Amino acid sequence: MSIRIGVDTGGTFTDVVLVDEESGRVVTTKTPSTPANPADGFMAGVHKVLETHGGSRDLDAVAALVHGTTVATNQLLEDRPDGTAHLGFVTTEGFESVLEIARQSVPDGYGNSYFWVKPPRIVPVHRVRAVGGRLDHLGREVRPFDEEQAAAAARWFRERGVTAIGVCFLHSYANPAHERRMREVLEREHPEAVVSLSSDVLREYREYERSVTTLVDAAVKPIMRRYIENLSERLGRPFSVMKSNGGVLSAAEVVHQPITTVLSGPAAGALGAALVAGAAGHPSAITLDGGGTSTDVAVVVDGEPSLTTEGRIGRYPCKIPMIDIVTVGAGGGSIAWVSPEGTLKVGPRSAGADPGPICYGAGGAEVTVTDAHVFLGRVPPHLLGGEIRLDVAAARAGVEALAARLGLTPERCATGILEISAFNQSNAIRQITVQRGLDVRDFPLVAFGGSGPLLACRLIDVLGLPAAIIPPDPGNVSAFGLLTVDVKNDYVRTHVTREPSPRALGEILAGLEAEAADALGREGFAEHVYARSADLRYYGQAYEVRVPAPDGPVDEAWLAVVTDRFHAEHERLYGYGYRDDPRHAVEWVNLRVSGIGPITRPKLARRPYQVDEPSPVGTRDVYYERWGRTVVYRRDDLGAGAVVRGPAVVEEYGSTLPVHPGFTATMDDYGNLVVVSDDR
């Protein structure tokens, strides 16, 4: 059993990678996604890659199967009116309006909120129930839990068919006793309800964020459980699911904490790209995962993608640890449309996999980014090595009709679509770099995903990037990333103090590590690795800075090391610190532990060196600045050292790289195409 398989379900295609650890062979494939039942596309992809590898569909030879999916959160991301219709909320008496009040903040771009309309809450006020009882910030009981009110709330939900319930009581991060009693009442009075407790989901203070995070977990639990059960039944074997924090977890455990999978696929892509970039000698890079529906952007610094606990799912804040990813609706299926003012817009609405772009010939009637590429000749008249034939004439007719509405030539319309898409992607890159205090010009771009490489040359120009790295099989990097990650669970405990006691902190960390050890033991790991961190701030500040904390016993020297790291990180982030100013005390806020079960990562193979000049496989008419007969290369024919000068097109099974005039692509030792501008 030396075979490991990674399956990443995207909006348009399901990507599959098989690694045979015994022979070192890597097999990649893609199959169309099946939005109506994602499990169909999953099973089709697994069977297809097994047949390609050895002609057998037998899953008994598979040692591990890892899945990346966004099934859990699609209903929230798409803002469907019925997405949270089954959801209810239980909170402390007197705090029924916590969701309505929120943070009283207004999104950027709305000035003084004059024109901003507050979006609907995840749970409307009429589905919020309050229960008496009160704890203080240290977890001490101020008023006893009101059993009668709790039972009345449970019956109220049962009578109205509310089947998913989030429970968040004040200060339950310090003491979960009242929440656990509420769960017991719900199990007795409303046994068919799915329940999420904030003390299980996020044991950290800030009531609004903890409430919403808990409700998102409750909202996606039913659909995630159905999906996992369906897939488990069809597979007939255990499998693992990618988490947003850069680790994996068994499917049996994931159903109890589905919120941890919210950025499952994009997280795998960032990790796979980090491994590729590191092997190529670039420990720091920007990763861009271009799919059919969206583009996901992250930053890798010194080999590790940046992490955050300030992420969002759609409009909902979620404070679970996740890889810091910015998503923009700019994928191959993004639809071009005309605004009421008569201007051209692209996305965020997508044609997806069904019906897909016009060129798919499956009923799509609106021009997409892919149709623009096809019309301009930058994408071949087929996908997946000929498995999917494209209707070039239909794409041309669609572009011409849209161009006529805008009063443009078809070429100007198509290039305008691609230009808007490139600027949407570049804005996402600026958000993840410039707005985080990083200089975008210091980072090469790792462009992958089916549509990721298509705009690489334009992004180099727009952002002044030093290079773009196109990995082998770019459409399957996310699926490959699934096979590079450890099992990982995160645990947090709020402990606010300006006078930290080594004994108290040591006990909290020991408790968190015991929780991590228990979870890793259930996953079958005898070897455990723990990564500690702490959130600190200067007294009076509203938000904290996270720093790594050392292993070993917690004593005064340990406290000094963490405090020193906080001063240094605060100065790096904000340009100032109060290391030697006793007027600004340091306040400890949260302690964190990540429990890690390490795996053996696949090794990247080196490409043989190519002595001869690469030979094109043909030519076709391609539009860059003008129409011209352009050489086409097959990527499989290129060895290390091969140089492709634009204008040209490099084609492969899952993606295409248009090399614009004034750009050069060189293949490195690991099969990556490194694209640079001739002007730099």
From TrEMBL:
Residues 4-189 form the Hydantoinase/oxoprolinase N-terminal domain. Residues 504-670 form the Acetophenone carboxylase-like C-terminal domain. Coiled coil: none annotated. GO terms for cellular component: cytosol. GO terms for molecular function: 5-oxoprolinase (ATP-hydrolyzing) activity. It holds the Pfam family Hydantoinase_A. GO terms for biological process: glutathione metabolic process. Residues 210-490 form the Hydantoinase A/oxoprolinase domain. InterPro entries: ACX-like_C (IPR049517), ATPase_NBD (IPR043129), Hydant_A_N (IPR008040), Hydantoinase_A (IPR002821), Oxoprolinase-like (IPR045079). This is Hydantoinase/oxoprolinase family protein. The lineage of its organism: Bacteria, Bacillati, Actinomycetota, Actinomycetes, Streptosporangiales.
